[in-house]
Automatic annotation (TrEMBL):
PANTHER family: METHANETHIOL OXIDASE. Belongs to the selenium-binding protein family. It holds the Pfam family SBP56. GO terms for molecular function: selenium binding. Keywords: Selenium. The keyword Lipoprotein does not apply. This is SBP2 protein.
Length: 56
């Protein structure tokens, strides 16, 4: 529901055994922004390049 904003979560990848696990210690709630709920888009890691872009 876009009217309530977006959330960014972290999924940890187990490269040895396979599978994904939700990281319970990481959550960014864009719905709680001071200027109202917002959507996340075109997120980039600091110092990243095109290989680290995340499009949402």
């Amino acid at each position: 529901m876009a009217g309530k904003g977006a959330q960014l979560i972290q999924l940890d990848v187990d490269t040895e055994k396979g599978g994904l696990t939700l990281n319970p210690n990481f959550l960014v709630d864009f719905g709680a922004e001071p200027d109202g709920p917002v959507l996340c888009h075109e997120m980039r890691f600091p110092g990243g390049d095109c290989t680290s872009d995340i499009w949402m």
